[in-house]
Amino acid sequence: MKTAIISGASRGIGKAIAISLAKEGYTVIVGYCRNKAKAQEVCDLIIKDGGIAEAYQCDVSAPCQVRAMVEYSKAKFGNIDVVVANAGISAYGMLIDHSDETIANVINTNLVGCITLCREASKVMLSQKSGNIVTISSMWGQVGGSCESVYSATKGGIIAFSKALAKELALSGIRVNCVAPGFIDTEINSNLSQDEKNQIVADIPLARAGTPQDVANAVVWLTSDKASYVTGQVVAVNGGLVI
Ligand code: NDP
User: Fold this and answer.
1) Rounded to the nearest whole angstrom, what is the distance from the C-alpha of residue 171 to the centroid of ligand 1?
2) pLDDT higher at 1 or 225
3) Is the dihedral angle over the CA atoms 86, 92, 95, 99 positive or is it negative?
4) Cβ count within 10 A of residue 100
5) Which domains, from first to last, does the chain contain?
6) What amino acid positions are annotated as catalytic residues?
């Protein structure tokens, strides 16, 4: 049995990743923070399709909850073969308007949450001498986004972290890669008006918003044997917007 943990899989990109990995034969832990019903819907879809999935409540900004999710998965399913550190939140606005609380929340969810999940998963993967980790960054982690400075900082941090961890774990049979999505039409962008979305799409060389499935396809490839010689890389899924 192959097992995958995906944080923030109740909707959006994480949902597409969970469903896609289930189709690849993984037993999937569908991590969620607040949205139990949505996470259960994802599990139901997978189970209806003949797969195995379980929803697990885990606020990634709380290290004890991350540890508990990994320990639960290991105890219940044995190996942990794939971990996708996907959970994330945005913070839009001028830096001068960000409160201390907002800054801490974005860093603790996006960056610390990713690092903690990777650390806990690495403990299990090191004992197995195998595993695949995929982190989810953003094009703003590559080039910085105006009015998304703290978000960009967390996503840039994820890129550096993933490259470093890839070097640390390579000899132990564990690959670590990062996906940097561009503009993907999900709830995280619900602060944007339709006009603003159209303006972004107008700048995208491939002339459309990305879909959660576009990102999931990259994750499926990175975690497959077809990418067995790929580690420490950032795969940009952005329609050519950032090169
Ligand atoms: P959504 O807002 O659609 O989904 C966010 C997911 O993260 C939900 O499942 C949510 O769970 C979960 N989540 C939020 N806070 C926490 C937390 N503290 N602990 C655990 N889970 C949490 O966002 P997307 O699917 O668009 O984004 C997924 C990832 O992709 C994020 O890291 C985001 O930064 C990144 N990304 C997205 C882009 C886009 O344009 N959409 C572009 C580049 C990167 P719940 O439903 O329970 O609240």
Assistant:
1) 31
2) 225
3) negative
4) 7
5) 2-237 (3.40.50.720)
6) 151
Does the predicted model carry a pTM greater than 0.85?
A: yes
Structure tokens that stand for 166 in this block: 């890839």
Mutate to test the pocket of ligand 1, among 5, 10, 13 (most ligand atoms within 8 A of CB): 13
The closest of 217, 70, 94, 196 to 151, measured between CA atoms, is 94
Closest among 227, 226, 233 to 176, alpha carbons compared: 233
- Find the mean pLDDT for residues 38-61: 98
Instruction: Supply φ then ψ for residue 99, to 5 degrees.
Output: -75, 165
Tell whether the torsion through CA atoms of 224, 129, 117 and 47 is positive or negative: positive
Q: In what order do the strands lie in the sheet with 53-57?
A: 53-57, 26-32, 2-6, 82-85, 131-136, 174-181, 234-237
**Ligand 1 centroid to 221 CA: how many Å?**
21
